[in-house]
Design brief:
285 residues, UDP-galactose 4-epimerase, domain 1, two-stranded parallel sheet, 9 strands, NAD(P)-bd_dom_sf
């Protein structure tokens, strides 16, 4: 029996991964949901164990008997490396056979600042001696749901991405890729650069929303600092606003485009197209 565990199982990505795993596991595979509060994982329909990235004492018990572990990256920007190190060290001590990690697209060379912590985590995993699979995820289409709603209110999209192309895919697409890598053969030692089949610029996103709404919603490109101030103005903490603005600039330098279509190959179907995503967002508003 192979036991597969997923950290951050009650988060948006984690829940989808558990759902996809349940549809794929064989009779010789079982699933464990790891969460800071196992009670929040009760509705997932699998065994749940307490595990907190920041509390190493919880990790040894949580990882006992685990063969394959999906480490979903922490959302604590600035603390990720220390937290991920706790998980990797606990996995090694527990005898976990392989770690799959949700990294960022081309983590080794990305111009996006978030890549620094992902690079460091990839190094920790590689140096652990454990088997590994690196899932270098591009941007989620869902990242733009708020921008669409905001543009409908403000009459325009804003950002600092220039003409940079973005190979975004739905969160469910990345979750399915993780489930494939966790349950299938041939993924040990592999690094996957994952993105949507078709890329788009922010101007093209604005044009698609304009087409579907019948409104004229332009994209206004701004300097990084000005965009960060706008994000602060809608209530985001300054460090988060700065991170998002810098990520946009990284996109303008090619940091979010990926034409290899490894994601659709891995999941065996096309990724979610931009028009379908936009339609879903608009229906939900």
């Amino acid at each position: 029996m192979t036991t597969i565990a997923v950290t951050g199982s009650t988060g948006q990505l984690g829940r989808l991964v558990i759902e996809k795993l349940k549809a794929r596991v064989s009779g010789q595979q079982s699933i464990v949901a790891l969460a800071r509060d196992p009670a929040k994982a009760a509705d997932l329909g699998v065994e749940a164990r307490a595990a907190d990235y920041g509390q190493p004492e919880t990790l040894a018990k949580a990882l006992a008997g685990i063969d394959v572990l999906l480490l979903i990256s922490s959302d604590a920007i600035g603390q990720r490396v220390a937290q991920h190190r706790n998980v990797v060290e606990a996995a090694k001590a527990a005898g976990v056979g392989r770690i799959a990690y949700t990294s960022i697209l081309r983590a080794d060379v990305t111009p996006i600042g978030l890549g620094q912590e992902h690079r460091a985590t990839e190094t920790l995993i590689a140096e652990s001696g454990l088997g590994f699979t690196l899932l270098r995820n591009g941007w989620y289409l869902e990242n733009y749901a708020g921008a669409i709603e905001g543009a409908l209110h403000a009459g325009a999209f804003v950002g600092a991405a220039g003409d940079g192309r973005i190979s975004a895919a739905a969160r469910a697409d990345y979750a399915e890729a993780a489930a494939v890598a966790l349950t299938g053969e041939g993924h040990v030692g592999k690094t996957y650069e994952l993105g949507g089949d078709d890329s788009f610029s922010m101007a093209e996103l604005a044009a698609e929303v304009s087409r579907q709404t019948g409104r004229s919603l332009p994209y206004n490109d701004l300097p990084e600092a000005e965009y960060a101030k706008i994000l602060e103005g809608i209530g985001l903490p300054a460090p988060v606003a700065a991170m998002l603005a810098q990520s946009d600039v990284g996109a303008s330098k090619g940091g979010l485009v990926e034409n290899g279509r490894q994601l659709s190959v891995l999941i065996g179907r096309p990724t979610t197209p931009l028009p379908a995503f936009v339609e879903g967002v608009l229906k939900g508003l």
